[in-house]
Amino acid sequence: MLATDKSADQPLVSPSEAPGRDVVIYDGHCRFCTASVRWLDFLGGKRRLSYLSLHDPSITNYAGDLTHEQLMDEMLVVEPSGMRHGGAEAFRYLTRKLPSLWIFAPMLHIPYSLPIWAFCYRQFARIRYRFGRNQCEGDSCKIHFD
Question: Which PANTHER family did the record assign (predicted)?
Answer without folding.
Answer: OS04G0668800 PROTEIN, SI:CH73-390P7.2
